[in-house]
Write a structure and sequence with these properties.
heterotrimer, A alpha/beta, B mainly alpha, C mainly alpha, B: mainly alpha, 9 helices, C: 8 helices, about 0% strand, flat
């Protein structure tokens, strides 16, 4: 799992409302990387993540994705779920949107893994916060193995069981050749050897 | 990066499915259409000749307002729940999103209004031939209104009091469609040919279909940046 | 698009601020002098019109105001587009500064149109093609102002305004054409506010002078307003505290 880079960031800088959030951000993501982005509140973590996805134009710097056609998936603070759609319909829409081939067994397996099987035909509106978060994260598991994941507070609203599922999901994704960059206020229960930490102040230090 | 047509199809299918779950809400613009048009006889007087004369313009104005009133929610919920981000991310471009939204809006608002128009024709005692012309002009004109409303919604995305602001922004741009659309029916009523009006309306539709979606895509980018 | 080095130098808000301070007083003087001359010529020197009497005199204000309203809208759209496309801060500020002045001229054109209409047609308003187009132009200005004022993020407001102004510019010919069409179709003999075909030479002189006066005024006001916008947006920059107001 060496050398194949999925994301290269050079000299990234962003400001909001006239205030510089960060500048001269340099780092690279490789296949198999699990990166925990750390910073205090208000230091532009979400802005950085949005810039990495291409949804936001940075003030300066370049973001390169040399990984061929490897897709990029983003789970934001908001779960991107429609209240009137059921869990299954939400997953199907996500799959359709990202041109992911889906069959019944895969859906059933994913739902089971995330503890959503019993509620699979419930409208997402009827779910708890934690359950909705699980649906958003379950969508990740449907995607390609070599994908780059950008996750904003994935552990938000999850209970102990949910947290463990995400920990396992991340490690499994890295093992399969994917990469992930995420933020979290609590330290993830991932082996220190597997996890890389990026500290964001007004600059970057590994 | 998913292909544009796939994203277009996915968003369209989802929005139509969501609308099917909220049938009452979908019919609200049509209800507004009928109710607002019915106010005019109450305000102006029930004289049949007068009503017959003002009917085309009146129906068109009410259709315009009904269309624009249902536009703000087009993107607002998508912005709030994060699905707009996902749509933009999947496509890499805002164009399929803009196109899908505009088509969905027209299918759910413009088309029902066009179908409801003959009912108003009945209320205003409009001649059958003119009713047909009115429906035809709305068929060509409501897509223009949806496309322009779409642009307004993207520009005012997330802005306070966006609904009223949107109407102020978009109404001047809708004036040509209003003039050609209602003018066609008025011309027919006066015994003149409406061919010129319909040609201009069709040309306007083509022009708007080509230019509005890219502008809307740019507006979405500006709003989410 | 290659801009001359001179122009580029003034593309910095700081340089522009200094330039504006030097130039604006002169513009005010030019504007007032020309306006006074134009008013004198228009109201006193030009002869009374055979068909419309003295009422037509307002045309030497009405027509230049209408021209200004149109030109300023296009200028506003152009500067906004440059600011958006080239990411030029000063260009976006220009566009914002032009908008209120453009709207003012539109309002002036409508008001003088009404003053003309009253003695000529007996009503304060007629729905002729030009006045109606002018009214819609006022709505376009108001829409632009409302949009840029409602968006808190300055950069987003500038860009959204630029897009709206460009869309408006593309629409203006279409709107004008459709309104003309509407007007001629609905009233057999069209009611127009066009001045009498043969206008006295002196009246044309008055119109020309008024146009120049309006231009000088527009420059002065837009420069002043841009300075205010620059001061507000660049208030953290050091060069501002060093220079006089």
């Amino acid at each position: 799992m060496t050398g194949r880079r999925s994301l290269i960031v050079r000299g990234l800088a962003c400001s909001r409302g006239g205030r510089t959030l960060f500048h001269d951000v340099d780092f690279a993501l490789e296949a198999g990387d699990l990166v925990w982005l750390r910073a205090a509140n208000g230091y532009g973590k979400t802005t950085l993540l949005r810039a990495l996805t291409g949804l936001l134009m940075p003030d300066a710097g370049t973001i390169a994705r040399p990984g061929g056609d490897a897709p990029l998936y983003y789970v934001a603070h908001a779960n991107a779920l429609k209240g009137d759609l059921t869990v299954v319909e939400s997953l199907r829409h996500h799959a359709r949107l990202h041109a992911i081939e889906l069959d019944e067994t895969t859906i059933a397996a994913t739902l089971g893994r995330f503890g959503l099987h019993a509620r699979r035909h419930a409208s997402t509106r009827a779910l708890s916060q934690g359950q909705r978060r699980r649906v958003a994260l379950a969508a990740l598991a449907l995607g390609r193995a070599d994908a780059t994941w950008i996750l904003d507070e994935p552990y938000d609203a999850l209970d102990a069981e949910g947290t463990a599922i995400v920990d396992a999901l991340l490690v499994e994704h890295a093992d399969a050749g994917g990469s992930a960059l995420f933020t979290s206020h609590v330290p993830p229960a991932i082996d220190a050897g597997r996890l890389r930490i990026l500290q964001l102040d007004a600059g970057l230090a590994t | 990066m998913t292909s544009a047509t796939t994203v277009f199809g996915a968003i369209l299918a989802r929005d139509l499915r969501l609308a099917a779950r909220r049938r009452v809400e979908v019919l609200l613009p049509v209800a507004f259409f009928v109710v607002s048009a019915s106010l005019f006889p109450l305000g102006i007087g029930p004289e049949p000749q007068t009503l017959r004369q003002i009917a085309p313009g009146l129906v068109w104005v009410c259709a315009l307002l009904a269309t624009l009133m249902s536009v703000p929610t087009l993107y607002a919920t998508d912005l709030d729940d994060g699905s707009l981000d996902q749509s933009l991310l999947a496509a890499g471009s805002a164009l399929p999103v803009a196109c899908a939204k505009a088509l969905a809006h027209w299918l759910l608002t413009g088309l029902p209004l066009t179908i409801a128009a003959p009912l108003l024709g009945l209320l205003f005692d409009v001649e059958p031939r003119s009713v047909l012309a009115l429906a035809a002009s709305l068929l060509l004109g409501t897509p223009v209104l949806s496309l322009l409303g779409n642009l307004g919604a993207a520009l005012t995305l997330g802005v306070r009091s966006g609904g009223v602001l949107l109407i102020l922004l978009v109404v001047p741009l809708c004036v040509p469609a209003l003039i050609f659309g209602s003018g066609a029916v008025v011309a027919l009523d006066s015994g003149l040919s409406a061919r010129g009006h319909f040609s201009l309306l069709a040309a306007l539709l083509i022009l708007t279909t080509l230019l509005a979606p890219p502008a809307t895509a740019a507006a979405l980018r500006i709003a989410t940046d | 698009m290659r801009l001359s080095p001179h122009l580029f130098a003034f593309a910095s808000p700081a340089r522009f601020y200094a330039l504006a301070s030097r130039v604006t007083p002169g513009l005010w003087i030019v504007s007032i002098v020309l306006a006074l001359i134009a008013l004198y010529v228009g109201f006193f020197v030009a002869p009374t019109d055979a068909t419309q009497g003295d009422a037509y005199r307002i045309v030497f204000i009405h027509v230049p105001a209408a021209w200004m309203s149109m030109v300023l809208y296009l200028a506003m759209a152009a500067w906004a587009a440059i600011g958006w496309g080239l990411n030029a801060r000063l260009a976006s500020m220009f566009a914002r500064a032009i908008a209120p002045t453009g709207a003012m001229f539109t309002f002036l054109a409508l008001w003088t149109g009404a003053l003309w209409g009253r003695p000529t047609w007996g009503t304060w308003w007629v729905w002729d093609a030009r006045l109606t187009s002018e009214l819609i132009l006022l709505f376009l200005y108001l829409g632009y102002l409302a949009l840029v004022e409602s968006i808190d993020d300055v950069r987003r407001a500038d860009r959204a305004g630029a897009l709206l102004a460009v869309v408006g510019s593309v629409n203006v010919p279409i709107i004008y054409f459709s309104v003309k069409w509407w007007n001629t179709l609905h009233q057999g003999a069209s009611i127009t506010m066009s001045a009498a075909p043969t206008m006295a030479q002196t009246m044309l002189v008055a119109m020309g002078l008024m146009t120049l006066a309006f231009w000088a005024y527009a420059f002065a006001v837009v420069f002043k307003r841009t300075q205010a916008i620059v001061a507000e947006r660049e208030r953290h920059a050091r060069w501002l505290s060093a220079s006089p107001a």
